[in-house]
Recover the amino acids of this structure.
């Protein structure tokens, strides 16, 4: 039976300036800047949630771990943590970010890789057997240099150091390709000044070495180096986390039909052989345009109203949104399963508009949690700092676009933090 929260009107909630972090940069501290990642969770926001809703010895979970922001902040705070993500690129990035390495040992391996550049002969790597899409994105010279770098990194015996170097290589792939640098959409820039892989790898790895040293030193000082912190390649709807084991969930679910993470990370996925069929891979993600034909299945009156209104305008879009709400209902069930009694679920989620229909995702998820025996104890509204997530949507297609488009409309000016307790 579908339920509806009484007197719920999130639009009337005032923005709380304490949660806006207007001047905060998302990658300035610890290992947060290892790898570009769209819609990155703001570390300052996670830090504040950890400090207000968790305590020492708590286990924190993030079911949409992404690039590991929650896990990094949990470790620096001495909290045990576990994260899951369905994207193998996200898993790799997170593993590197949460496992600091002895700086001297890391520097030694870095120098070995850099010194090996003198061995490079383009004829040995020009015809490297990589997925056909690699030839679409890379010049033959850059393809050869990346293949050389990849082979050298794979020869590293220490798994943690190997992950660190693979993340650095992954980060520079976009810079060294024809991909339009300012775009999250896969499109070629014919006028791009493409970076040299060796120079880009040297520069970015040096920056990562510095941040690793800072992270390692702080964790050593606070005796948090061995604090349990792990990432699993799993679906948020069906995890292996033990029932009633988590004290707090801190996560940011994907927005309705937002980023296509499978497309964004395809360069790494192809190079590292994580995928062979991009279309098949896309269908695993929540909040994607590619997973269709499911009926609405969540306990929310508001969700039904939204889908019905959309259906009168565009049946395909209505199915996409219905599929999203169904998936999020499953996530809500999983949250309830893994949380301890009186444990907190802290969710950062925003509303949007598609085809002039307001998609009140925050309110819908609040109804879902209410139906699952959660109690919403606090709802916080915050304005979104620039460039953290896309803010322009084409009103006709529903896809994100540039501001100069005639059909463009600002979206996601604000988002909500739902604080729910399992009762």
């Amino acid at each position: 039976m579908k339920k509806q929260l009484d007197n719920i009107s999130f639009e009337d909630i005032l923005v709380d300036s304490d949660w806006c972090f207007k001047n905060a940069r998302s990658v300035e501290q610890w290992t947060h800047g290892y790898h570009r990642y769209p819609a990155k969770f703001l570390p300052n926001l996670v830090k504040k949630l950890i400090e207000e809703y968790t305590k020492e010895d708590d286990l924190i979970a993030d079911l949409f771990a992404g690039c590991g922001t929650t896990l990094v902040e949990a470790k620096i705070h001495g909290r045990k943590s576990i994260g899951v993500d369905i994207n193998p690129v996200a898993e790799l990035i997170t593993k590197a970010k949460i496992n600091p390495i002895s700086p001297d040992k890391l520097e030694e391996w870095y120098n070995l890789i850099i010194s090996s550049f003198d061995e490079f002969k383009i004829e040995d790597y020009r015809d490297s057997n990589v997925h056909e899409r690699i030839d679409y994105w890379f010049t033959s010279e850059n393809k050869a240099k990346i293949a050389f770098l990849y082979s050298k990194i794979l020869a590293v015996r220490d798994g943690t150091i190997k992950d660190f170097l693979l993340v650095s290589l992954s980060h520079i792939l976009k810079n060294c390709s024809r991909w339009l640098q300012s775009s999250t959409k896969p499109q070629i820039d014919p006028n791009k000044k493409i970076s040299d892989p060796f120079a880009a790898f040297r520069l970015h790895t040096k920056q990562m070495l510095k941040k690793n040293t800072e992270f390692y030193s702080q964790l050593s000082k606070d005796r948090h180096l061995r604090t349990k912190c792990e990432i699993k390649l799993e679906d948020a709807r069906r995890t292996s986390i033990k029932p009633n084991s988590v004290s707090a969930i801190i996560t940011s679910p994907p927005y309705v039909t937002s980023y296509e993470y499978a497309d964004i990370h395809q360069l790494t996925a192809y190079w590292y052989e994580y995928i062979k069929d991009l279309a098949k891979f896309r269908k695993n993600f929540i909040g994607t345009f590619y997973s269709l034909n499911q009926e609405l299945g969540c306990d929310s009156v508001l969700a039904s109203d939204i889908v019905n209104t959309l259906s009168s305008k565009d049946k395909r879009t209505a199915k996409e949104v219905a599929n999203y709400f169904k998936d999020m209902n499953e996530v809500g069930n999983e949250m309830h399963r893994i949380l301890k009694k009186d444990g907190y679920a802290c969710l950062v989620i925003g509303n949007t508009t598609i085809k002039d229909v307001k998609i009140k995702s925050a309110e819908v998820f609040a109804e879902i949690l209410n139906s699952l025996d959660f109690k919403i104890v606090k709802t916080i509204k915050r304005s979104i700092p620039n460039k953290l997530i896309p803010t322009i949507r084409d009103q006709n297609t529903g896809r994100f676009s540039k501001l100069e488009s005639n059909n463009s409309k600002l979206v996601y000016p604000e988002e909500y933090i739902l604080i729910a307790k399992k009762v």
